[in-house]
Amino acid sequence: MPPPTASSKARVYTDVNTQKSREYWDYDAHVPSWSNQDNYQLVRKLGRGKYSEVFEAINVSNNEKVVVKILKPVKKKKIKREIKILENLRGGTNIIRLVDTVKDPVSRTPALVFECINNTDFKTNACSAVLSRLLQALDHCHSMGIMHRDVKPHNVMIDHQMRK
């Protein structure tokens, strides 16, 4: 099979974004709504990456466990794009749910609040089921005109109790 050229075209979901309104794909024009970060109490650090630090937290209004991803300084455009993508994918198959977006009132540091997944490492015999669900999630993203671009084990969360 010859290598793809610059003019190659996807075989599936080719025209997804052309069928959506400008509001769907125009990240620059998106205006996120920011809630009060005091609604969440950080409990413990779960991890960190190049662009963020991730914490287990509690929603103080309903005592629900959540995960807060505090974003490191990046261009506003990148933050708006991530928020818009998460909003567009909300409710999709095997897609983590964005619960809220908050900003520190003093530092203006943005953070994303997600549902809490009881994530645990998985054994080799569970890989088939996990891979199947991961592919379903990626198919959903692609069907919505979104390419993930950072698929790696660290970005896959598995709740073995809920089997999702």
Please provide a brief summary of the model.
Helix content is 21%, strand content 24%. With 164 residues, the protein is an alpha+beta fold.
Commentary on this structure:
By secondary structure, this protein is α+β, with helices and mostly antiparallel strands. The protein has a domain at 17-117: Phosphorylase Kinase, domain 1. It has helices at 22-25, 76-89, 127-143; strands spanning 35-36, 40-48, 52-59, 64-71, 98-103, 110-115. The chain has a 6-stranded mixed sheet, covered by helices on one side. A hairpin with a 3-residue loop joins strand 2 (40-48) and strand 3 (52-59). The radius of gyration is 17 Å and the shape is globular.
Detail the topology: elements first, then pairings:
Elements: H1 22-25, E1 35-36, E2 40-48, E3 52-59, E4 64-71, H2 76-89, E5 98-103, E6 110-115, H3 127-143
Parallel strand pairs: 1-5
Antiparallel strand pairs: 2-3, 3-4, 4-6, 5-6
